[in-house]
Amino acid sequence: MWTTASAPASPPPGSPAARPAARPRMTEPLTTAEAAEAAEAGAATGPGAALWVDPSNGAAGDMLLAALLDAGASLAAVRQGVARLAVEPVALELEAVRRHGLRAARLIVTAPDSGTHRDLAAVTAIIARAALPPAVHAFAVSAFNTLARAEARVHGVPLADIHFHEVGALDAVVDLVGCALALADLGLLDAPARVVGPVAVGSGTVRTGHGPMPVPVPAVLEILSGAGAPIAAHPAAMELCTPSGAALLATIATSWGPPPALVPHSVGVGAGTKDPPGHPNILRVLVGTSADRDADGTPWLGEPLHRVDTTIDDVDPRVWPDLLEQLRAVGAADAWCTPVLMRKGRPGQLLSVLTAPAQLDLVCRLVFTYTGTLGVRVSTVQRRRLRRDQIAMPYGDAAVRVKRGYLGDRLVSVQPEYDDALAVAQRADVPVARVLDEVRAVARGAGPPPEAGPLSEATTA
Q1: Within the chain, what is the greatest distance between any pair of CA atoms?
Q2: In which domain, by residue range, is 186 found?
Q3: How far apart are CA 315 and CA 317, in angstroms?
Q4: pLDDT tens figures, 186-224
């Protein structure tokens, strides 16, 4: 899909006003009347909505989009949004299939052969010119940036040298933009509770534009490790998770793990093209309303965690930053060091790690391996955290990821990612403090920033 290398005729789709809960007919296009009827059925939307994605048999862009459509997203809305993109004509159909005795929806994308090569700037410009809703635009740009950065890193080339090629480019555009449109139609783009389960990646080799590649391909590992995603064991000797699938999961996930506490409203099952004999090649989504509330009805998320502690006085202090980063990368919820005074006045560090039960053994193994400690203390704690989401705010031709926290339905925390803000500030030659302030203001829904700048133009397009 990617290689390394040495340009509207309908109103904006994806409005969150219509969130159909009814499953569309999979053997024929969704009619206007069916879309309206589905919208009236309603579904959970906004900060109270919740989503769980089950990629335990793998993930690809078309599988995820098919699952969202099967869960009630409007096929008509997705078609309308994709039609606004200035690319070759693309047709979308949804058909009913069976995978190991299970009913599923399969997305059929028909696109012409094309010799057009598009880099990241060209793809993001196409999305910007489509005049999609801001949240749809931001999600799609964030997913493409995640995908391109991973490819650039694993191939060791500048981001600008990453190119789409031929029909693979159209597939990726349809998958990523289509999923953004479907999530918006279900009211899930601003839902803080978007949980993704452990991801099956497969094994073996696969043929690519760069020749045979080991599975999981390097870009998938780069994306999932960067997002802190847990990987699930799977017996299939084939590619189960594609780079576009990994990028979508990383962009969707506000957290990783089992289904959150929710009241389910709809289930969607998306099928892959292949039908291997060893497992059902499907991805599932569960859409509902968050059920985490305290005694006075204020929603937040509660979860049991383990805390791992050990006190150390003989580790080179230069080891700590790398160890803390590795602990977070394998799925620890948090890791930190606290200065302590040990026996005979020796200065030391108290290493503390918060982790879910599924990662406890791996965390302990890392602590023993990298610190040389002879023992750790493990205790059970209860964590309460704000429901949150992560959005990408366009800034010029790039994007800044922003984490937002909700107490009930009230937005109380808006935190742009500093590394993203620094990168776009250096590119735009503006102070990073200005980028942080502008992105934070727009993410709060406060309208355009007081001073004109790259962000103002991007968010009002």
Answers
A1: 79
A2: 44-290
A3: 6
A4: 999 878 789 999 999 999 988 876 678 899 999 999 999
* Residue 50 to residues 61, 165, 193, Cα–Cα distance (Å): 20, 35, 5
Same domain, 361 and 454: no
| Residues 6+ away with beta carbon under 8 Å from 344 | none
Picking from 349, 384, 419, the residue at the C-terminal end of a domain is 384
Q: Count how many Cα atoms sit within 13 Å of the Cα of residue 325 in the half-sphere of its side chain.
A: 7
| pLDDT value at residue 293 | 55
Instruction: Report residue 15: phi and psi, to 5°.
Output: -65, 135
Q: Is 250 in the same domain as 325?
A: no
Answer whether residue 22 is part of any domain. Answer: no
Q: What is the pLDDT of residue 101?
A: 92
146 and 197 co-located in one domain: yes
Phi, psi (deg, nearest 5) at residue 130: -75, -10
**Strands in 369-409 per DSSP E:** 377-385, 387-395, 398-407
Model pTM score: 0.62
Q: Are 256 and 196 in contact (CB under 8 A)?
A: yes
Do 243 and 217 touch, CB atoms closer than 8 A?
yes
The three-point CA angle 377-381-386 to 5° equals 140
My answer on whether 362 and 342 are in the same domain is yes
Q: How many domains is the chain partitioned into structurally?
A: 3
Q: What's the CATH number where 325 sits? A: 3.30.70.1380
Do 276 and 320 lie in a common domain? no
Regions of the chain where pLDDT drops below 50: 1-46, 165-168, 294-296, 446-461
